[in-house]
């Protein structure tokens, strides 16, 4: 579940940051509920006077099918989260500004850097440069929730927000904020 970033010096006092997104934690409750529901339906449709062989077959179908439903549902939910969250990224920061694959932001245009949670269920609250702590998303403090790997670092400029990288844990995003601020020499 850990995310990370690498720093690579480039010319002119710049640093290239490459962010590796965290893997999405596996959902357990919803897939388990569907698996139990599947098994219950299979067993509930067993004829009342079924022989032992039919009961064994039904139990095997309920067990194997339940595991299949559990795995399929868990994978599907993780894929859904991966589609909506901001992926990792690569960008270059120097004392004169930030360069992304979509363009550049000069230091004089930069209004601030923000750590946000990009999860639709996560908090939209942000921690800006210089903030030592920020509000965690409202996922009940569960470190294994999908919202816990949806943090992103954004650069605010001229009324626009540019996502520099995403798919991070809160700690990684805060560390990246600190390092980018250091290179930009922000207070």
Question: Can you put this structure into words, describing what you see?
Answer:
Helix content is about 35%, strand content about 30%. It has about 190 residues and is an alpha+beta fold. The chain folds into 2 domains: about 5-25 and about 85-185, no CATH class; about 30-85. Helix 1 (about 30-45) runs antiparallel to helix 2 (about 50-85). The chain starts with a strand and ends with a helix. The model is unreliable at about 120-145 (pLDDT under 50).
Spatial gap, N to C terminus: 31 Å
Number of domains: 2
Query: How helical, in percent, are the residues?
Result: 25-40%
Rough outline: rod-shaped
Which sequence of strands runs across the widest sheet? Answer: 1-2-3-4-5
Q: Can you give the mean pLDDT?
A: 81
Strands, total number = 9
The ordered string of helix (H) and strand (E) elements is EEHHEEEEEEEH
- Count up the helices: 3
* SS strand fraction: 25-35%
Low-confidence blocks of residues:
122-143
Largest β sheet strand count, sense and barrel closure = 5 strands, antiparallel
Chain oligomer state: single chain
Structural class: alpha+beta
Please compute the radius of gyration using only Cα atoms.
23 Å
Q: What structural keywords apply?
A:
five-stranded antiparallel sheet; about 35% helix; alpha+beta; single chain; rod-shaped; 2 domains; 3 helices; about 190 residues
Set down the secondary structure blueprint:
Elements lengths: L3 E7 L3 E7 L8 H16 L7 H33 L5 E5 L2 E4 L2 E4 L3 E8 L8 E3 L22 E7 L2 E9 L1 H15 L3
Antiparallel strand pairs: 1-2, 2-3, 3-4, 4-5, 6-7, 6-8, 8-9
């Amino acid at each position: 579940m850990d995310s990370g970033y690498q720093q690579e010096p480039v010319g002119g006092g710049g640093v290239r940051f490459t962010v590796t997104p965290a893997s999405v934690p596996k959902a357990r409750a919803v897939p388990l509920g569907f698996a139990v529901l599947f098994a219950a339906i299979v067993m509930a449709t067993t004829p009342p006077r079924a022989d032992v062989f039919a009961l064994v077959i039904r139990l095997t179908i309920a067990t194997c099918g339940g595991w299949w439903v559990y795995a399929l549902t868990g994978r599907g939910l993780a894929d859904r989260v991966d589609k909506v969250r901001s992926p990792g990224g690569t960008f270059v920061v120097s004392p004169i500004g930030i360069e992304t694959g979509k363009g550049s932001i000069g230091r004089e245009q930069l209004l601030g850097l923000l750590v946000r949670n990009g999860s639709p269920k996560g908090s939209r609250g942000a921690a800006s440069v210089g903030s030592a702590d920020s509000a965690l998303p409202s996922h009940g403090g569960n470190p294994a929730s999908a919202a816990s790997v949806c943090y992103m670092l954004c650069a605010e400029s001229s009324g626009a927000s540019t996502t520099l990288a995403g798919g991070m844990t809160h700690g990684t995003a805060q560390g990246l904020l600190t390092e980018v601020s250091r290179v930009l020499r922000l207070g």
